[in-house]
Amino acid sequence: MWFRKKQIHVYELLVGLFVMTLIVSNIASVKMIQVGPLVFDAGTVLFPLAYIIGDIVTEVYGYRKMRTLVYVGVGTLLLTSLTFWLVGMLPAQAEWPSQSSYDAILGVVWRIVGASIVAILVGELMNSYVLATLKIKTKGKKLWHRLVGSSAIGSLVDTTVFSLLAFAGTMSGGAMVQLVATVFLIKISTEIIVSPLTMRIIHHIKRHEKLDVYEAPASHLLN
Question: I need a labelling partner for 127 at 20 to 30 A (CA). Which of 70, 118, 140, 209 fits?
Answer without folding.
Answer: 209
